[in-house]
Amino acid sequence: RLQTVGHMYRHFLEMVEDKFSADTVDTIIEEADPPSGGAYTAVGTYDFAEMASLVTELSRTTGVGLPELLKTFGYHMAGRFEAMYPDYFAEYTSVFDFLPTVEDRIHIDVRKLYPDAELPTMICEMKENGDFTLNYQSSRPLADFAEGLISGCADYYKEQVTISKIDRSQDGATDVEFTLRKT
Question: What is the mean pLDDT of residues 123-151?
Answer without folding.
Answer: 95
